[in-house]
Amino acid sequence: MQSPLYQFEDTIVAPLNPAGQGAVCLVRVSGKLSKAVVSHLTKKPYNAALWPPRTASLVAIWDGDVLLDRALFTSFDAPASYTGEDCVEWGLHASPYVVNRFLTLCTEIPGVRMAQPGEFTWRAFTNGKMDLSRAEAVADLIAAENPMAHRLAMNQLEGGFARKIAELRERIMEFAALLELELDFSQEDVEFADRSALKDLVLSVRMQVVSLRDSFTAGEVIRKGVPTVLAGRPNVGKSSLLNALLQNARALVSDQPGTTRDTIEEPCAINGITFRLMDTAGLRESTDAVEQMGVARTHQKLTHAGLVLMVASVDEYPDEAWMNLLSLAGTQSKVLVVLNKVDLPEGYGHRSDWLQRFPDLLEISAQTGQGMDLLRKRMRDIVDLGRLAGDFVAVNARQRHSLDQAASALQSIYNGLHQNLETELLAEEMRAVLRSLAELTGDIAADDLLGAIFAKFCIGK
Ligand SMILES: Nc1nc2c(ncn2[C@@H]2O[C@H](COP(=O)(O)OP(=O)(O)OP(=O)(O)O)[C@@H](O)[C@H]2O)c(=O)[nH]1
Ligand SMILES: [Mg+2]
């Protein structure tokens, strides 16, 4: 995608879903020639009385003298459409042949071309149908794979984020204006903006900006899943546990210690939450170079885990060295101790020693499935969902960057106020804050920024 991003004069067309999947393929035409396309395909002058907007109409589509399809179309008059332009949406039979012919017939008309990825949503944004955070939420909504991610995207789509930012901007704007005014009167040495009130404001806004910025982690967790590491000594059944959770023989299992060498990562939905399960190389001193690399990787995964399933086997003993493994988990990680192979004969191993050390450990058998339901429930419950109550919003990487900038400019203002910094410098930082906040909702945005955002869409969005 180049800048300036798209050619607005053109009428654009693209299927909204792939042909060949399902019975119907929806194709959207957007732009000035939308209705001309209808006439061209039906070989009839456009009849607004017969085909009122927002009503499905059944028509014959002609490919020369050949009847290509009988299909429903719905027209939307600007500005009351997804893109804000005249739009016609076609429900074709989803044969790849029909859809391809249809697209060819449309693009034969001069001024009509295929839409580029994200172009429909780009037009919606440019025509003021949605702000930038909502446009991004459309991409998130389409990608949502679990109910939490869906709720998050919907919340964003409904403008929760934009509202929060608008509130913050408004609070700052007033002071920014007063500071600018002081600059106009700089000869007279007046202070319109009350410095101590400004200090309070800067502190409170900074706190909110920082808390929004930190919601990035929560958002990532919801979108991509809780990073969950299965760790423990070799041969204790980590890979078997992964397979049992996935209900699928994904990882190799063998009675050879050191079977797993690389990290295996698989998403796993448990009761509406996605866990990104990572099976790792068993932790031990090894002279094998490849295994050493695997162990190093395990260490690294452990420090970034949201949840660690520390797996032990009843036939090992909870000695000091094992206790030390627990300290490898990151400080942010939650840890569940899982005792595997409890199907082994009664009295075998060190079950009572483990229970004494960890009264609430989870006893399971990855082999027989014993205790697995309880483990799933505990995993589900341990994820902190408190933050998802109410109108929770979460930011993405781009927004986090802008929030970071706003936070650091606010910090400079705060420091500046303590050092009685000149109004001019304060005003400059204030402008930087407003700019960062405006970027968040796209009130001002550079072309390359927009290009980067809309490039993430696929054709037909
Ligand atoms: N009896 C019994 N055996 C198990 C259980 N879970 C795993 N095993 C056996 O224990 C051995 C090791 O299992 P893995 O899942 O490969 O263990 P791992 O922790 O991934 O081992 P490494 O990848 O070498 O670190 C295999 O022979 C499994 O069949 C269980 O619940 N009960
Ligand atoms: Mg393994």
Provide the descriptors you would attach to this structure in a database record.
alpha/beta; 12 strands; Rossmann fold; binds magnesium ion; 44% helix; Gyrase A, domain 2; binds guanosine-5'-triphosphate; flat; Four Helix Bundle (Hemerythrin (Met), subunit A); 3 domains; 461 residues; 6-stranded mixed β-sheet; 15 helices
Could you characterize what this model shows?
The protein is flat. The model is unreliable at 386-391 (pLDDT under 50). It is of the alpha/beta class. Helix 7 (195-224) runs antiparallel to helix 13 and helix 13 runs antiparallel to helix 14 (423-441). It is 44% helix and 17% strand. The protein binds guanosine-5'-triphosphate and magnesium ion.
Q: Which ions, cofactors or small ligands are bound in this entry?
A: guanosine-5'-triphosphate, magnesium ion
**Structure classification:** alpha/beta
CATH classification, class level of the largest domain? Alpha Beta
C-alpha-based Rg, rounded = 29 Å
Query: How much helical structure, as a percent, in the residues?
Result: 40-55%
Say how many strands there are. 12
| CATH fold-level topology of the largest domain | Rossmann fold
Return the average pLDDT rounded to an integer.
85
Order of helices and strands: EEHEEEHEHHHHHEHEEHEHEHEHHHH
Q: What's the helix count?
A: 15
Distance between the ends: 15 Å
CATH superfamily of the largest domain: P-loop containing nucleotide triphosphate hydrolases
Which descriptor suits the 3D outline?
flat
Number of domains: 3
Give the SSE map.
Blueprint: E1 11-15, E2 24-30, H1 34-42, E3 57-63, E4 66-76, E5 87-93, H2 96-107, E6 112-114, H3 119-126, H4 132-143, H5 147-157, H6 160-184, H7 195-224, E7 226-232, H8 238-246, E8 264-270, E9 273-279, H9 289-303, E10 307-313, H10 320-326, E11 334-340, H11 351-357, E12 362-363, H12 372-382, H13 397-418, H14 423-441, H15 447-454
Parallel strand pairs: 1-6, 7-9, 7-10, 10-11, 11-12
Antiparallel strand pairs: 1-2, 2-5, 3-4, 4-5, 8-9
Helix pairs in contact: 4-5, 6-7, 6-14, 7-13, 13-14
The site of guanosine-5'-triphosphate has 22 residues, from helix 8.
